Structures are given as C-alpha cells and as structure tokens.
Amino acid sequence: QETRSNEESTDESEEDESEEEPKLKYERLSNGVTEILQKDAASCMTVHEKFLALGTHYGKVYLLDVQGNITQKFDVSPVKINQISLDESGEYMGVCSEDGKVQVFGLYSAEEFHETFDCPIKIVAVHPHFVRSHFKQFVTGGKKLLLYERGWMNRWKPSVLHEGEGNIRNVKWRGHLIAWANNMGVKILDMISKQRITNVPRDDISLRPDMYPCSLCWKDNLTLIIGWGNSVKICSVKERHASEMRDLPNRYVEIVFQFDTEFYISGLAPLCDQLVILSYVKEISEKTEVECCARPRLDIVQPLPESCEEISSDALTVRGFQENECRDYHLEYSEGESLFYIISPRDVVVAKERDQDDHIDWLLEKKKYEEALMAAEISQKTIKKHKILDIGLAYINHLVEKGEYDLAARKCQKILGKNTELWEFEVYKFKEIGQLKAISRYLPRRDPVLKPLIYEMVLHEFLESDYEGFATLVKEWPGDLYNNTIIVQAVVDHLKKDPQNRTLLRTLAELYTYDQRYGRALEIYLTLRHKDVFQLIHKHNLFSSIRDKIVLLMDFDSEKAVDMLLDNEDKISIDRVVEELENRPELQHVYLHKLFKRDHHKGQRYHEKQIILYAEYDRPNLLPFLRDSTHCPLEKALEICQQRNFVEETVYLLSRMGNSRSALKMIMEELQDVDKAIEFAKEQDDGELWEDLILYSIDKPPFITGLLNNIGTHVDPILLIHRIKEGMEIPNLRDSLVKILQDYNLQV
C-alpha cells in the first residue's frame, strides 16, 4: 500500500475523537492504479473474486489483481467506458462505451462479439452463467433495453425488452431476473416467463437522472436494493399464489424496507443484514458561503421498516473530491470477502471489515491496554499482526508513564510470566525511576528465579529507606534467592549506626538462621525477648547452646521455658537447671513447682528446698505440696511453718506427726474456728479429742451452738448438755436441741 499523507488519509473520520470504534478500515488501491489515474480517470469498475476490471475516460479497460497491479490492458475505444460486466466465472467480459461500441469477449478464448450503435450505450450486462453454451445472452442499454441471444449458426439475435421511457441508466442481472432503471423508475423482468413483474417509480423526479443516477444491487437472488436520490427501497421478489394468478405474472415484488437518507446516494452494497451506502455530500463553505462538494461518506445502516439506524459513518478524503459530482462515484463490492470499492475519477479506495488485529489497534490507539490484552488472549490463534507479549509490555509502560507503579508491577506477573530476561529488564527500569519497592512484592521466587543480584538490589533499596519493608522481604523470600553473606554484612553495617534497632536485630537473627549460624541468632532473639526463640531452639535442637542462657529464657517467658526444659530433660538435666537458677530462687521455684506437678518423685532431693521456696513465693500451694509430697522432712517443714506462723500448715504437720491435741489446741486458740475444730475431731475420731473440744468450748456460747449442731452423731450429747452452766445464753438453743433429738431418733 502506498504511504498516505495526512491530507490524503482515507480513514480520517469526522469523529476522530469518538469512543465509537469504526466498523471498516480503508486503504487506497495503489500500484498500477496510481499510474493509470495519474494520466487517465476512472469511469467504472467491476469486481470479481479473482480480479478487478477498471474502465477509464480514455476508453481503456485494465484487469488488475486485488493489490491494484495491472495484469492486462484492452484498448476498447477512444472515449469513456460506461460499464464493464463479468459473468460469475470471470471468463467473459462485456464492455460498452460513450461512442456506442459494445464488445462481449472471452478473456481466455477467441469468442467475441462487436456491435456499434448510433447512440451512447450506458450499460451492458452479460448473463451470470454466460460461460455455459445455452446461456449466451447479454443486454445493452441506450435508448432501448436490448437482449442479445446467440442462436443458430452462432449468430446473435437482438430483441427489444423495453423502450420509450428515456435512456436506460443501470442494469443488474441476477439468476433469472434482470433489473434496470430508466428515467421513470426501476423495472424487473423474469427471464423464464419473459414477463415484467414490477415497476418501482422514482420518488424525486426533480433530480436529473443523468446527474443523480439510480444505484441497483442484488442482495441475493430474490432481494433487490434500490438507491435513488436520497431514497432507499429494499424489494423482495415473491411467488404469487396460484389462486391469485388470473392474467398476472406468477411473481410479484413487495417493498419490505423504505427510508430516506440525509445525502444523495452514489452506491449501495449489502453487509449481512445491514447496508453499506456511499453518499455524495454538499456543504456550505465557511469562507465563501457558497455550496461546494464535500468529502463523500460511507455509512453502514441497519434498515428498519420505515427508517434506518446508523451504525457507523466515515467521511472519506478521496483525491479530487472537490470537483466530483454524484455520478462520478461508484460502489462495488466483493461478495465473499466483505470488500467494498469506492471508485471516483482520480481514486479507488478499498474498505474492508475490521478484523481482530484492527480492533486491537484501535484499543491501543485509545490506550485501552487492558481490553487490548484481553482481546489478544481470546483471539491469539487468529491474530497475525499483534503479539500478546508486546501488548503486555506496552501496557506496563503505559501504567508506568501514568505513575500507577503498583498496578504496573502487579501486571508484570501475568505478562512477563517465566521470561527471566524480561523480568530483569523491567526490574532495572523500575530502578531507574526509583520504584524498586513497587515491584518487590511481585518478583518471582520459584520458577523462574532471577539472578541473585536482582534480589540483593531490591533488599539494599529497602535497607536504605524502610527497615520494616526489608524485614518483611527477608521473612517472605527464601534464603537461597540472594547471597546471604552480602546482606548480613549490609545489616551489620547499618546496626553500627543504630545498634538498638529491634527490626534490624530481628532480621539479622533470621538471616543468621538461614545461614545456619543458630548460636548467633539465638543470642539476638534472647536479647530481643523474641517469641520465635523457643521455636528456633526446638527446630534446630539448640539445647547445648542454651545451657548457660536458662535465666534469660525464664525471664523472657517462664512458662514456655519451663515446659521446654521439662520436655527435654534428657538434653538439659534437672540438676543443671536448678544449679543455673540458684541465684534466682523465684524462677527456681517456678521450675521445681511445675516439675512436682508433673511427677511427685522426680525432684525429691529438692523437696526440702521447695518448702522454703513455697513459703517465700507461693504460700497457697505450700499446704497441697506438704500433703502430696512423701519426701519432705516434716520436722524441717514444721520449723519453717512455725517460724512464719503458718497456722493451717502447722496444724496439718502436727496432726501428721501424731500430735493431734496440739493441733486441735492451735485451731481453737489461733484460728478460733469451731467448724474446723469439729471437722478435725471428726477426722481423728478420738474420744479424748472430743473431751478437749468440749472443755475448751463450754464457756463460749457460739462454740456450744456449733457443738450441739454437729456432735450428735459422734458423741453422746448428754455429756455436753450436763456441763452447760445454768443461766448461760446460747444462740439458737431450741433449734440445736430439736436437731439433737432428731439425730437421736434417726440413730435409734
């Protein structure tokens, strides 16, 4: 295709900025056509699926390939070629010219017909199946419509089909139907019955038929499209029912769609169920205020019963449009490929339906990269011009230019896939614009893996400006992506400036862990009192490293530390732990207490020590310990409890050592708790104890009430009642006596 300058661009639309995507794309037919039209002017053209035939004002007919290259040339006449007709096979051509010459000849055979009339012949149409011997027919149109048929002895016999209504302006032959236009309207002839089946009068008789000729086009064998002036009619040929025949033709025509257009029609063509209309446009010049010729328009419309809906509209910058008239434009089309040829004296433009590549071009032009990428992925087998990767890279660049760095980085994952070279290129690009951080989250970590330098570069970027981000990357990235030693050294250098930075210390510990320098990692974790310290010890079996760090671990989280130490007695013995905690008795107690809970016998050698620890740090658990331990020395325990005046513990120890009377005395005197005293007496079940209890209680009315309520089932209540002094007031005496009698009856 020839390079088009701006002023000659044929796909220039009046709505360049429109968001509406055009339906057609345009190319100027160049090569041989350019040469022809520099010296001559196009007058007509016909299209076959294999080639094109172009007629000129100087009487030449050129056969062209679809690129516009000349394959054959015929000198037919010295004056303008009015029409060229081809049969369906493309083997026979009919040509007529302004000087009355008509020629029908075979392109690949010597068969030929010549005739010269005494008036200009405007149209010629050969039978669609002219190649077959029994269809050797063609029609010509000047003042009459003549049918030529080849008969006996290969002679051509003419017959008049129609005359008397002015010049025949256009003719189109399809199957058994011939449609033609004269000054009065459009007629259709059925070649089987040789009957005329319709007459469609023209609407605007004020227009000169030679200046605004009729456009005819068969959509299929039974549908004729008529365009004349600014009126469009779509006619359907139908079979008449037998009952309606009488003297009428067996076919009739129904107008199924009829509508007017804004401009004068120069040509028509079908596109599926839509119409392509070439329009001649006049407008008022802004400068001179005189009516002048504007650029012709190519519209796609959807016919409706009485109107039409515009689907698209393009104004075409054809060469010399300022001098052209309505009759100078023609629209021809190639049925199989949806190709439309706009013919004007100095230009031939080809319009074709836009394919997926064109759709993607338009999306890219409108910077709709996301949609372009999606369209390319859906049609990746059919697109020829575009590559998904190229669109993707353009999309990333577009996002970067807009400053949407995070979205650009996110799209890299999908677009770059496993291409390490492209990944590395994009990373350097992000580095140049100072946006390494944006792409860091999306860098591949497995399949593919980039060069270590890439990851190190990103880590250094974070280390310079964002310690938290640096720590997150170290945690998320596998340690084998980069050279650990280099990063460790960089962190150590930063810690020299800020030695107490917890984030850097924590990250350094993680780096040491990747590097299997667990001892160093452990030291940092312990200094930081980091929760991962226990996980680290367990995971890497670092018990030998913590023998001298037990106090640190206990200080950090005594519960977790004790559980860990007890779970791993085989690695760190009980004796070692107790020894390490010697100077921290409160921690020693926590450890030994939990050990005792797990197993009463394992730490028996420390039970004496534990009495003091419980007394000092955990009084509530002392009594349960004394009860459960079978290894603690009772005398030592009694001494400690008496020193600290622990009454309950002393009572328990005295009773356990057999000194029940002293224990009871302590309950009565120290605790003054009659219920506890009675409970104790019940437990011992000793008559002498009860006697002591009664003697102690006899002058204390509240104690007497307690005894009266509880004594009945253990000792004869009479013993107590006899001893109560006359006149002593005892609370709730009546209730107590009733209870004694009830208990007595129950016992009887």
From TrEMBL:
GO terms for biological process: cellular response to starvation; endosomal vesicle fusion; macroautophagy; protein targeting to vacuole. InterPro entries: Beta-prop_Vps41, Clathrin_H-chain/VPS_repeat, TPR-like_helical_dom_sf, Vps41, Vps41/Vps8, WD40/YVTN_repeat-like_dom_sf, WD40_repeat_dom_sf. GO terms for cellular component: HOPS complex; late endosome. Residues 1-24 are annotated as: Disordered. It holds the Pfam family TPR_Vps41. SMART domains: CLH. Keywords: Protein transport, Transport. It comes from the Eukaryota. The keyword Transport applies. CHCR repeats lie at residues 562-706. Belongs to the VPS41 family. This is Vacuolar protein sorting-associated protein 41. PANTHER family: VACUOLAR PROTEIN SORTING VPS41 (PTHR12616), VACUOLAR PROTEIN SORTING-ASSOCIATED PROTEIN 41 HOMOLOG (PTHR12616:SF1). SUPFAM superfamilies: WD40 repeat-like.
